[in-house]
Specification:
The chain is mainly α. It is built from 10 helices and no strands. The chain has one domain: Tetracycline Repressor, domain 2 (Orthogonal Bundle).
Length: 217
């Protein structure tokens, strides 16, 4: 008999098996969204990719849409960890723009943008899904604002526009560029935009030397 307060080996094995099943289904959902899109991300398609009974989707997640949201969360969490690490030592607008360009390339190579694009597309046909997807974008606005505050600091450029507003514009533009690149499959126009942004930030950095210091309160 197991001691009081100690999990039984059966429970431990069951929990591990359950976690493994959820992981396999989540990974399968991500790959299905990448390759077959939202419309093709059915319980059957996902379960076949995971090599599991499709009933397990409803047992563990309640619905296919819930599973797809968990898949989006997994992708978003992985991206946040990667972005945070990449921006850890960034201390200037120029460095921030350089890192953003590299992250954009990584997003396209990994297919993460496809997952988000397909979930946004699916939101138009599934009631309530749009609200859920939008809520998952909120942390990115806060993240962008923190990155801007850290990179621009007391630079005179920081006084031109509230960082929260700039963060909103940047995230919106980033998502829009990702969506367009996903649709037409041509990343060159987007890469040119980032190259132009890098040059513009460099120019603004030079001009900021002639601007009055940012006022402090």
């Amino acid at each position: 008999m197991a001691k009081s307060g100690a999990p039984s080996s059966v429970t431990e094995k069951g929990s591990a098996r359950s976690a493994d099943t959820r992981r396999l289904l989540t990974e399968a959902a991500i790959e299905t969204l990448k390759e077959e899109g939202f419309a093709g991300a059915s319980a059957r398609a996902i379960s076949e990719r995971a090599q599991l009974n499709q009933g397990l989707i409803f047992y563990h997640f309640g619905s296919v849409v819930n599973l797809l949201l968990v898949a989006l969360d997994a992708v978003s969490d992985a991206r946040m960890v990667k972005f945070t690490a990449a921006l850890k030592n960034v201390s200037s607008p120029t460095e921030l723009t350089d890192v953003a360009a590299q992250i954009f390339r990584d997003d396209l190579d990994s297919g993460h943008v496809t997952v988000l694009a397909e979930m946004i597309a699916g939101a138009s046909s599934v009631p309530g899904l749009g609200v859920e997807v939008a809520a998952r974008l909120e942390p990115w606005f806060a993240f962008a604002q923190e990155a801007l505050d850290s990179s621009f600091g007391d630079s005179p450029l920081a006084s031109l526009m509230p960082s929260g507003d700039v963060a909103y514009v940047i995230v919106a533009l980033y998502l829009g560029i990702e969506m367009l690149t996903h649709l037409n499959g041509d990343r060159e126009p987007a890469l040119r935009v980032f190259a132009d942004a890098q040059r513009l930030v460099g120019l603004l950095g030079s001009l900021s030397a002639f601007m009055p210091p940012r006022a402090t309160t």
